[in-house]
Amino acid sequence: MKRAELLKSEGYWIAKLQTDLYRELISFMERTHKNSSQLAEYLGCSKGYISQLLNGNFDHKMSKLVELSLAIGKAPILEYKDISGYILENDKTFSSVLTSSTPSSKFTICYDGELFRRA
Amino acid sequence: MSKFALRNIEAVAGNQTFEKLLVDGVAPFDTFENELEAKDRRSLEKIYFYMNEVSNNRTLADTKFKDVTPRKEKVKEYEFKDGDLRVYGIKKFGGKIIILGGYKNQQKKDYRTFRSLKEQYLKQKSIKTNNNEKSRTPKK
Q: Which of A57, B8, B104, B112 is the most buried (most CB within 10 A)?
């Protein structure tokens, strides 16, 4: 698979969003000294659901993503970039070979700052 | 005996280099990718994402990437996974070598192939290194 092809693939971006959320949850657990059971209790979710999240397998509704992000004190900021521009930028960073690029919209997500903590 | 070579994996970019093993000019990882069922394509794309993360020294859930090195084995072994797919690799100086990929239900057989290829590759590499050292040593 070529790098440009990978950066245009659904799987790449799904894994990125799942991994970003996984890292935010791990970081929250470390900051607040919570284990997975305590996290489940705090978020009002089942242990099974938390285990899914901690395995990097989040694939639910956008409303759930926003709810989880806010609950751990993070703003889930979505940023839409032109895919061909993103590939070019990435190509410059890593000096890899660029094959082809078709303009379309893809987004990246970042978790910015702490909004609030639940009491 | 098979001839081994390494080729850069272009889709992976980061601090660590990712290469695939070529056996007599063919990469088992490429064969796996080319023969992949359409329904598993997304899982492979996700595995490529995980490789990029590892290449950039970022942490992943151990359900996605884990050390599977048997005890007493000197060269580290790794497994990437998503859904029914598994990708097997080893450590090399400054990166990883991807040896092959396979399906979860073929894991036992794939591990045997993976470890056999690893052993043959390392053996050939060590013979080459010894020969190079010998050729560099001045005759008395």
A: A57
